[in-house]
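Ops channel
N.P.: pipeline sanity check, posting one input/output pair.
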């Protein structure tokens, strides 16, 4: 079965969700581009968009129309070539409208799982629930005579586990898109020992056609991205707990968040990133990883990935995450116009205004190295490597609370990255760095020359 034939009938499970909608958008455009080629004129392409709610699917179709139109406007020149035989399509608007109609025309929204029984390829992008994934994929596998290939977008669950429990016979591959899939370039590709090589070959072509950066990850819970992020987040939470002995909890959260953003040159602080992903999502990913540490090699790990603070926040109804319009929900921070304005105090169960303690915290931390550098300016810097070496060289020589906290944090991040390689989660240091660079938008990888082991009195 060739590439186009495999994509002739495709299903996306969880199509109306944050990840599923982006995967559906990219797949719909790839299938439409295939359908426009002369050799595929006789093929009818169908993309089943399956979700539990008709209302959500209605919103999905509106989203697709808007996003496809934006994409069409950016590639009007190649589209003119595609539709050059259509004399009725003269203006750019006519061509764009036709392309949008063609893309939307292959999508079949449905709330019935039976729609997937004729597909040769299934994208699974439902919630991160191992039992539910196995249940749905088992049902499809038993009722689909085409022995479909399964691409799961799981960000933490080992692929071999789903394969074995759903009885897929190696016809499953982890294809972990990053949020939002339509924009993020990174895709982690995770194969189990049993995964058929043809799936991997196909996925590499598919990802290349979508313009993605592919990084292979070995089949360990959490893979590279969450393997680093969850441990990095736990370190930030631990540092805030340690600082809470000498300042208020809100001040500690602000301090660690600012250090990780302004001293480490990240696009957002660690507590903002936890809010962005969702406290409950982070808690769940940690629980999935925590129960599977050491697999699949059979080693028993003494490491525990769990945060009582996250438990406490979630039990108080503080969850973070985004609304359907993309705006940020309140988590550790209270957001006004998507900017942090307050910090949650678990004792009083209310948000304290950042303005009440920001100046004092900044003074206590001390300044960042001069000349000033931030994430945005570092990303665009014409001599980025030299600028980073200068910035972190000066940071290493500083003996302020903020600088020492940053050095300890940078070394812990490096340690996590190196452990992912030594534990054979990642195949190389370069792969770890690429995931953090392209998936988390860091300006430098965690395994670097900027941070060396720090002493305990820092």
């Amino acid at each position: 079965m060739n590439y186009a034939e495999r994509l002739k009938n495709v299903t996306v499970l969880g199509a109306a969700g944050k990840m599923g909608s982006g995967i559906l958008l990219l797949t719909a455009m790839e299938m439409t581009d295939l359908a426009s080629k002369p050799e595929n004129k006789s093929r009818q392409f169908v993309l089943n968009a399956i979700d539990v709610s008709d209302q959500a699917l209605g919103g999905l179709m509106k989203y697709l129309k808007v996003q496809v139109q934006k994409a069409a406007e950016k590639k009007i020149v190649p589209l003119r070539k595609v539709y050059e035989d259509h004399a009725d399509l003269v203006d750019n608007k006519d061509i764009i409208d036709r392309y949008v109609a063609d893309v939307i025309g292959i999508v079949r929204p449905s709330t019935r799982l039976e729609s997937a029984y004729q597909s040769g390829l299934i994208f699974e992008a439902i919630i991160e629930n191992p039992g539910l994934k196995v249940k749905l994929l088992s049902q499809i596998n038993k009722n689909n005579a085409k022995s479909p290939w399964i691409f799961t977008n799981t960000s933490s669950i080992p692929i071999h586990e789903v394969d074995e429990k759903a009885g897929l016979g190696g016809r499953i591959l982890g294809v972990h898109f990053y949020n939002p899939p339509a924009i993020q370039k990174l895709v982690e590709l995770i194969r189990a020992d049993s995964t058929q090589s043809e799936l991997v070959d196909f996925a590499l072509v598919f990802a290349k056609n979508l313009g993605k950066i592919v990084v292979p990850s070995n089949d360990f819970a959490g893979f590279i991205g969450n393997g680093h992020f969850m441990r990095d987040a736990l370190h930030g939470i631990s540092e805030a707990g340690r600082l809470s002995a000498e300042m208020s909890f809100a001040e500690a959260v602000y301090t660690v968040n600012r250090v990780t953003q302004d001293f480490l040159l990240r696009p957002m602080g660690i507590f903002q990133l936890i809010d962005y992903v969702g406290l409950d999502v982070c808690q769940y990913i940690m629980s999935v990883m925590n129960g599977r540490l050491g697999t699949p090699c059979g080693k028993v790990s003494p490491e525990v990935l769990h945060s009582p603070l996250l438990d406490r926040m979630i039990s108080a109804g503080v969850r973070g995450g985004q609304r359907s319009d993309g705006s940020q929900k309140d988590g550790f921070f209270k957001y006004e116009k998507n900017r942090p304005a307050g910090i949650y105090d678990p004792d009083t169960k209310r948000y304290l205004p950042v303005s009440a303690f920001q100046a004092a915290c900044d003074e206590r931390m001390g300044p960042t190295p001069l000349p000033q550098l931030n994430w945005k300016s570092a990303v665009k810097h014409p001599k980025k490597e030299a600028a980073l070496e200068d910035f972190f060289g000066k940071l290493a020589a500083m003996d302020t609370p903020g600088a020492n906290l940053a050095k300890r944090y940078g070394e812990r991040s490096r340690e996590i990255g190196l452990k992912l390689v030594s534990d054979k989660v990642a195949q190389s240091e370069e792969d770890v760095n690429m995931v953090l660079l392209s998936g988390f938008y860091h300006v430098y990888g965690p395994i670097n020359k900027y941070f060396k082991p720090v002493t305990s009195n820092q």
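N.P.: looks fine end to end. The first helix runs from residue 3 to 6.
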